[in-house]
Amino acid sequence: MSTTRPRLVYERWTDPIAGEVLEPADIDVIRLDLSAPAELNWSVLESAHGYQVATRTDTAALPGASQYLAGAELISRCDNLLAVCSAGAGYDVIDVEACTRAGVAVCNNSGPGAEAVAEHALGFMLDLAKKITVSDRRLRAGPLENRLTLRGTQLLGKTLGVIGLGAIGSRLVELCAPFRMNVLAYDPYLDEAKAAALGVTGVDLAELVRSSDFVQVTCPLTAETAGLIGRAEFAAMKPTAYFITTARGPVHDERALLEALRSGAIAGAGLDVFHTEPPRHDDPLLQMDTVVATPHTAGITAEAARDIAVATAEQWKAIFAGQLPPRLLNPDVWPRYCERFNDVFGFRPNASCDPADSDSNRR
């Protein structure tokens, strides 16, 4: 049996508890310093068996750091890599196809942060409907002549359209239950049993945007979802409807959204994500009174950070113990991954993999 010791490289943990969970494990854990010389970072990465991938927001803050996202070039340079994981549910920082071709397992951390993001999405709905942020801005700007101009609406009995019914979307539906909303869902992976359990009606995208009072985007950014919401979708929405996203910026067309807001085609938007993060302070969307925005903080709560860190560490322990990763995104890689794992560590992972078991992790 090989005496090779697993080597895990990470950029940062969402909470220090991850290091504590990993400490008893027989794993070399090495931090990647994005500001360090590239030669040093590549020597670290090229020796790694596992890589907890840096976030796009972190790499955007430093020139040249985007090379440390798990794209095709990184995968080709790091021959020892067996697995890469993203920090949260989103995995657009990883080239899944390149990993699968190279026999590298890809995992995310969907689930642990779902409560935080779903609550944030609900917060956007309440804020926009009740005009909370708009009222705060007006009140601070000076004397308010007529408070009736700030009349809002209620969530009770309205129609909610959820695009992507994974962990976040499903929890959002549960949180909205007291408002007795009619819930529509667009999700190619949605089955009738799950729809019935959540009390939602599965529809196509055109029906969802046409009928909803609140259009909520909670799907991951993939080749299927990039540009999913564009001019046609915004034009089809009700003029009284609100667009809300806690997904990834490129899922929707920002220019089309701005045009829809300026023309009054839709009533407003709640945005936690942008095409460029952080957005420029003079981003035209941030100048709109009808927009409520946060800097990709929907999933940043003390509880979520800890839960994600624990789940992250436990998944890495499972990976290096030869177990099936609980949030595997590319199950087709499993046979080749097992061969590569055996070549490195001298034993094969002790689990089989059913591709159907990984469907929910993609959302």
Automatic annotation (TrEMBL):
<dbReference type="GO" id="GO:0051287">
    <property type="term" value="F:NAD binding"/>
</dbReference>
<feature type="domain" description="D-isomer specific 2-hydroxyacid dehydrogenase NAD-binding">
    <location>
        <begin position="122"/>
        <end position="298"/>
    </location>
</feature>
<dbReference type="InterPro" id="IPR006140">
    <property type="entry name" value="D-isomer_DH_NAD-bd"/>
</dbReference>
<dbReference type="Pfam" id="PF00389">
    <property type="entry name" value="2-Hacid_dh"/>
</dbReference>
<dbReference type="GO" id="GO:0016616">
    <property type="term" value="F:oxidoreductase activity, acting on the CH-OH group of donors, NAD or NADP as acceptor"/>
</dbReference>
<protein>
    <submittedName>
        <fullName>3-phosphoglycerate dehydrogenase</fullName>
    </submittedName>
</protein>
<dbReference type="Pfam" id="PF02826">
    <property type="entry name" value="2-Hacid_dh_C"/>
</dbReference>
<comment type="similarity">
    <text>Belongs to the D-isomer specific 2-hydroxyacid dehydrogenase family.</text>
</comment>
<keyword id="KW-0028">Amino-acid biosynthesis</keyword>
<dbReference type="InterPro" id="IPR036291">
    <property type="entry name" value="NAD(P)-bd_dom_sf"/>
</dbReference>
<dbReference type="InterPro" id="IPR050857">
    <property type="entry name" value="D-2-hydroxyacid_DH"/>
</dbReference>
<feature type="domain" description="D-isomer specific 2-hydroxyacid dehydrogenase catalytic">
    <location>
        <begin position="70"/>
        <end position="330"/>
    </location>
</feature>
<keyword id="KW-0560">Oxidoreductase</keyword>
<dbReference type="InterPro" id="IPR006139">
    <property type="entry name" value="D-isomer_2_OHA_DH_cat_dom"/>
</dbReference>
<dbReference type="InterPro" id="IPR029752">
    <property type="entry name" value="D-isomer_DH_CS1"/>
</dbReference>
<keyword id="KW-0520">NAD</keyword>
<dbReference type="GO" id="GO:0008652">
    <property type="term" value="P:amino acid biosynthetic process"/>
</dbReference>
